[in-house]
Amino acid sequence: xxxxxxxxxxxxxxxxxxxxxxxxxxxxxxxxxxxxxxxxxxxxxxxxxxxxxxxxxxxxxxxxxxxxxxxxxxxxxxxxxxxxxxxxxxxxxxxxxxxxxxxxxxxxxxxxxxxxxxxxxxxxxxxxxxxxxxxxxxxxxxxxxxxxxxxxxxxxxxxxxxxxxxxxxxxxxxxxxxxxxxxxxxxxxxxxxxxxxxxxxxxxxxxxxxxxxxxxxxxxxxxxxxxxxxxxxxxxxxxxxxxxxxxxxxxxxxxxxxxxxxxxxxxxxxxxxxxxxxxxxxxxxxxxxxxxxxxxxxxxxxxxxxxxxxxxxxxxxxxxxxxxxxxxxxxxxxxxxxxxxxxxxxxxxxxxxxxxxxxxxxxxxxxxxxxxxxxxxxxxxxxxxxxxxxxxxxxxxxxxxxxxxxxxxxxx
Length: 412
Ligand code: HEM
Hints:
412 residues; alpha+beta; CATH 1.10.630.10; binds protoporphyrin IX containing FE; monooxygenase activity; iron ion binding
């Protein structure tokens, strides 16, 4: 709990009415679902020791994603976390994720056509073939870590193909992307900042080199077209070009790697549901959707309140940082029957699942992620139907932004 003058005076920290609790990162990391469940029943919004406040209920999260009084954070978050300049800071200063209004539209629009559902659907046969080839690679081994050998590689190969990056670079750019995404986790300490900064710098240098190569030798690929369009329109700065590509690499790899691992693990933990999907492949999209609901790989979206916002009598003051907790919303008993039960046959999933956010910032890679997850699961069902867990269920660490996962040991 807080409420001291010193704390409430910090930027982004609301001054709460008496009794509203402030959650610590430690308790949320230890048991995110349990902690949110306890408080969601009593309060629509509670304090968060780093993020200002957390909105807990499904209806409020959905509404505030589209509420003009609630905006992207621009550079507020890195400034609050002691990162006021540098190349890590640049990702917030020049990226679409943290931008608002016309600036956001300008940064996002070069990608909207390429990532539109219809265009992305054309990649399905290639993603299916890649997933099957990966399964055939590890199938002869007795036991494998499915994350390293499979679920990380499907999105990494796909984003490499879309952006025209060499497959040999996958270990490099994925390592840097996973490292940089930790900046959003709330668990890094001031002493971690130099390492995060070095990773952000290396990832941006990697993209700059790729762009220089494309300028020197254009090809028939996304990167060449993006570069030509961005330069012809002249409305993206050189830094913006680099940072949008960095955000694509981060968004396109880490999120789906974690989701792919978790959906396999959840189905293996519920063998009757694994068997149902194996017998009836038409259940694959529902299995993907329910896995994303039950253990989302992205736990929240960060925002700032431009005006005071009243949620059932609790007022979030203007200027507060707000965490819209999709993790909490997706287990809200008011929105989902038996919310803590994993059930691929549930009928109450909304068409626009909050896992991919909402409003202007709704995930640009949603269609791609769904295809990768569906095809990844389909290839497992067809080629490794007897797959089983050989170790414990993987633990998803983190309660905000991109969550982190350990190994997933399986045998075919
Ligand atoms: C299971 C996989 C994924 C999940 C759960 C996910 C989730 C999200 C969420 C919740 C947001 C909104 C964040 C906010 O409002 O602050 C978002 C935005 C974004 N995502 Fe994803 N994502 C996934 C896959 C992908 C993929 C495959 C890509 C790229 C190909 C991608 C690229 C992006 C980008 C660039 C944004 C920023 C959009 C904007 O600000 O306009 N994501 N994602």
